[in-house]
């Protein structure tokens, strides 16, 4: 479907053509007719003036004038014939023709005089018998009329072009609010379903804004229902899974040796289900957060990382993976500790799952750019290419990796929470371990105010 701008331009072009073309034809025809009538009137008036002047003069032989000044070359005297006579005697003629032929010139109509066909207008004074005949080339009125009409048509065409350009500019300028409205909708993130400001929209687009707001409200309702369903289902599944795991672990010392592998499979399945439920709860929580204008709180990133890593040591020991924390004594940052805990836990869990067995995972806290602190997680697994790293942030995306027991939610949770916190997640080139190397860049906290309390008295 063509754009509204082009449709308006085409329709206005047809409308202008439908109005201006007939109007131009009428204007040209009217100008030509008016000029022709004016030409004849001027010719008749000139003849009357000549007659009035000639009637007062005595009879004299024909004399051709000799101009003192050179006349305008654009004015051709040969285009006009003037014959003045009195009682059959030639007084004046503008052409050197035999007197008999000049005296025989009719008063009105068309006549071949010399080499030209003339259109004649004549007047006669009955009192003195003086007669004046003025003749012009028969095509002169037509050519002059066409010349004037062509000039008018040129002006009309120029005016039409100027009007078309003005309308094009006006349409483009008038449709700018539509483009701004489209940009406002297009620049929204896929997660922003807040209603559009209908009061700011042009009146012609308020209906569209209302329809979009209704659509986004329905989408938000569907997403909320889906999120609530996942959250409720995860909560409902957590309790029976915890009970099953407790019962299975209670049987650990009572099982015969040949049953132990099956017992380990059951325990691993419950652990995996528990992690999946925890990740689903993290997903629903990340989707419901609104961190606009929330800078977070001041925390010591070193102590924070120590507490998160310590909770993951048992799982790492089961895979014979050593977790190392390399950091300074302290590093204060501004962040949301509850969300950063989910991010760091998922990054370290992902590193442990895909590290070698036995293997290593290194968590590093180091100063980055001015005003920033970097949190790095590196493993000795197979790593990810740049393209695979981008795809790994999609949900349930494991990229065909066979290691680990995840379902592909960990990095998607990391990406979503970091996006909401405004924390960049970058893939660095493999370091000393040779595996995946991920960096979080956190804003460093300003130093606390130097305050001192003194007591007197």
TrEMBL record:
Annotated Gene Ontology cellular component terms: membrane
Catalytic reaction(s) noted: ATP + protein L-histidine = ADP + protein N-phospho-L-histidine
Annotated InterPro entries: HAMP_dom, HATPase_C_sf, HATPase_dom, His_kinase_dom, HisK_dim/P_dom, HisK_dim/P_sf, TCS_sensor_his_kinase
Listed transmembrane segments: 12-33, 148-171
Root EC class: transferase
Name this protein carries in UniProt: histidine kinase
One GO molecular-function entry: phosphorelay sensor kinase activity
Pfam families documented for this protein: HATPase_c (PF02518), HisKA (PF00512)
Domain annotation Histidine kinase: ranges: 232-446
Catalytic activity, EC: 2.7.13.3
Key words of the record: Kinase, Membrane, Phosphoprotein, Transferase, Transmembrane, Transmembrane helix, Two-component regulatory system
Superkingdom of origin: Bacteria
Domain HAMP: 172-224
Compartment(s) where it occurs, according to its Swiss-Prot or TrEMBL record: Membrane
């Amino acid at each position: 479907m063509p754009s509204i701008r082009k449709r308006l331009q085409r329709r206005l072009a047809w409308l202008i053509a439908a109005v201006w073309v007939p109007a131009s034809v009428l204007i040209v025809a009217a100008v030509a007719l008016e000029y022709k009538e004016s030409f004849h009137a001027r010719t008749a008036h000139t003849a009357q003036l000549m007659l009035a002047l000639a009637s007062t003069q005595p009879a004299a032989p024909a004399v051709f004038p000799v101009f003192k000044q050179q006349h305008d070359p654009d004015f051709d005297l040969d285009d006009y014939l003037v014959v003045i006579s009195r009682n059959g005697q030639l007084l004046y003629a503008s052409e050197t023709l035999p007197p008999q032929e000049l005296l025989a010139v009719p008063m009105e109509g068309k006549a071949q005089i010399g080499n030209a066909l003339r259109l004649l207008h004549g007047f006669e004074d009955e009192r003195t018998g003086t007669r004046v005949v003025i003749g012009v080339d028969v095509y002169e009125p037509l050519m002059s009329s066409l010349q004037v009409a062509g000039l008018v048509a040129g002006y009309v065409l120029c005016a039409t072009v100027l009007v078309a350009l003005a309308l094009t500019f006006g349409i483009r300028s008038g449709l700018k609010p539509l483009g701004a409205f489209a940009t406002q909708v297009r620049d929204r993130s896929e997660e922003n379903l807040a209603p559009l400001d209908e009061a700011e929209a042009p009146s012609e687009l308020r209906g569209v804004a209302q329809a979009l707001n209704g659509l986004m409200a329905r989408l938000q309702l569907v997403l909320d229902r889906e999120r609530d369903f996942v959250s409720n289902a995860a909560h409902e599944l957590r309790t029976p899974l915890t009970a099953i795991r407790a019962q299975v672990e209670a049987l650990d010392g009572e099982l015969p040796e040949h049953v132990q592998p099956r017992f380990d499979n059951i325990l691993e399945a419950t652990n995996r289900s528990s992690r999946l439920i925890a990740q689903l709860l993290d997903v629903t929580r990340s989707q419901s957060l609104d961190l606009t204008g929330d800078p977070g709180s001041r925390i010591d990133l070193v102590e924070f990382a120590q507490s998160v890593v310590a909770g993951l040591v048992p799982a790492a020991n089961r895979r014979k993976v050593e977790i190392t924390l390399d950091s300074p004594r302290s590093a204060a940052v501004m962040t949301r500790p509850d969300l950063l805990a989910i991010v760091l836990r998922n990054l370290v869990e992902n590193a442990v799952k895909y590290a070698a067995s036995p293997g290593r995972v290194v968590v590093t806290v180091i100063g980055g750019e001015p005003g920033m602190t970097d949190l790095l997680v590196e493993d000795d697994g197979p790593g990810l290419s740049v393209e695979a790293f981008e795809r790994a942030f999609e949900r349930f995306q494991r990229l065909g990796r066979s290691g680990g027991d995840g379902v592909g939610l960990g990095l998607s949770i990391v990406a979503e929470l970091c996006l909401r916190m405004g924390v960049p997640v970058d893939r660095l080139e493999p370091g000393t371990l040779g595996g995946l190397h991920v960096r979080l860049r956190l804003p460093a906290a300003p130093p606390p105010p130097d305050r001192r309390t003194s007591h007197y008295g």
